[in-house]
Amino acid sequence: MAPSAGRRLREAWAEETLAVPGVYCPLIARMAQRLGFKAVYLSGAALSATLGLPDIGLLGAAEFSETARAITASSSLPLLCDADTGFGEALNVERTVHLYEAAGAAGLHLEDQQMPKRCGHLSGKTLVESSMMVSKVKAGIHSRHDPDFTIIARTDARGVLGFDEAVERAKRYRDAGADAIFPEALEGPDEFERFARSLEGVPLLANMTEFGKAELLDRTTLAQMGYKLVLYPVTGLRTALRATQEVLIAIRDVGHQRDQVSSMLTRRELYDLLDYNGFDARDRAYFG
User: Fold this and answer.
1) Which of 121, 154, 169, 174 is catalytic?
2) Would you identify the CATH topology of the domain 5-237?
């Protein structure tokens, strides 16, 4: 029997610290697989943005799980999913885990923010009591069908209650059974290193999102500190949006896109990514 997505994710991070790019649609997940990545990530911020919405908890488990299902149908890479606050309390987390597992995801992360939530790198966040988050972690662990489906606990305490409280909350979530810990919005290499020393032996996730609180550290440095997963949640989307903006401006102001053609994916490259020839060959064979 083939190993589950959760098992493959765990085996991959046991071998090396993983660079995990954010993918906001199936095509980008397939591109990441072609380029040799070992896992991909569905970001709530990126998914919300593709729907023209801010990252303030407006989406529900259904939107996330539907997108996850489409991604896992297009790519065999293990998919780690944002699950925001679990979309409610402990019983809601049960349902979220069931939906994500059914969609083929390898795991999810839950955060200890209070609704309405905010982007983890913005000010003005509020937190639930750590006991509430512990109940969510326990619900996630209890309700998963696959014991390797990965439950990661994220704490946003650094930006609200300080570094020491972030460490204490992380330890409580670890003791509740979380498979890994995600400290959000740590500030600078010293904090990343101190956090890792405080949670020695626990798989850790580092969020290298741009324009946030954290300095953009390289994967080798984070690996030496003990981090196992390094997220780039909105990097691809931000890059694509800037490129799209530039070509739209050229069309509007210059009247053509000729100067941008050299930076585009060619027709042949896109067809190859989509396996156009494979579809065409099968279609012909059915009528042969």
Assistant:
1) 154
2) TIM Barrel (3.20.20)
Q: Which of 196, 177, 176, 200 is nearest to 186 (CA)?
A: 196
69-114 pLDDT tens trace:
999 999 999 999 999 999 999 999 999 999 999 999 999 999 999 8
Which among 44, 58, 148 has a CA at the least distance from the CA of 105? 148
* Structure tokens that stand for 227 in this block: 């981090």
**Element of type H or E holding 26:** helix 26-34
Please give the C-alpha separations between residue 252 and each of 113, 148, 241, 243, in angstroms, as whole numbers. Answer: 42, 51, 16, 14
**What are the residue ranges spanned by the domains of the chain?**
5-237, 241-286
Q: Catalytic one among 41, 173, 227, 232?
A: 41
pTM value is: 0.95
d(CA 277, CA 272): 7
148 is catalytic: no
Q: Which residue is catalytic, options 109, 121, 144, 174?
A: 109
Query: What are the tens digits of pLDDT across the range 251-284?
Result: 999 999 999 999 999 999 999 999 999 999 999 9
